[in-house]
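Question (not urgent): is this output format expected?
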Amino acid sequence: MISVKGLTKSYGSTDAVRDLSFSVDRGEVVGFLGPNGAGKSTTMKILCGYLPADAGEVSIAGFNIFSQSLKARSRIGYLPENVPLYPEMRVGEYLAYRAALKGVRSRRIAEKVEDALQLCNLGHVQRQIIGTLSKGYRQRVGLADALVNEPDILILDEPTIGLDPGQIREVRSLIKGLATRHTILLSSHILSEVEMTCSRVLILNKGQIVATGTPAELRESSGLSLSGVVRLEVQVPDAGATLKALQELPHVASASLVGRTGEWSTYEIIPSAGDPRPVLFEEAVRRAWKLRELSARESSLEEVFTSFVTGGTAQVSLSEDPRS
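Got this back:
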């Protein structure tokens, strides 16, 4: 649905994006990540036809965004980082106005507005003045605007920026619901939100893609599949002797006793290399330890993201079927 090849955009002597290539397939929800100044918003504005490019090709639902701009843009619903609304208009009339601007046939405007109101849970405020709405509701109005022409593709730039935790959960839930009907490209600084919402992630740094894949693939490629701490809880008669045995195992850099209740002892193990859990399990079986917990917290997407944006700029493709 989205195909980008060799995209380049400069502001004076500064390259916002350089030779950028990627694709998004129908039905995907793709997270677009990068530090401030990485080129995310510039790329999204080019995809939506708001900015020209210096070089490269962009195809939206099969239409060239530069030579077939109107046809391409009719397939896109765009929610910018700062939603431009008319605060003096009522919600319903604003959406009707926007539907007309987007080419929705007059006899279908009321139907499309009603659909957008229901999808975004705005029916009860449709007659309210936009300027009197909370930030969360204004964000919903912006999303309803993006949906009112029933586009194939949604491009959402920081859709939850400035919202409180409750509003973030509501908008996140709404986006997940939309994923069954639209192809979505989503930019966000809230990495937990991307992880819970997106099936694939693109990491952009200094105008180039440095990694792409599922969150699990990114963890594996970064070498941060584990957070660095493995937790083991076993029933043993001698906690000290067990600690010494753990410290002598391969793949264990250090071990410490962090809690004891009766004969149940809890240890935290720092791996020296790789995942020590198979070795720990085999040792528990060999010594007939009763095992209640053997777990490792996966690294957060934030830790993985940081490793990529600080560790180099060469592109890493993590999928069997490379998309860029």
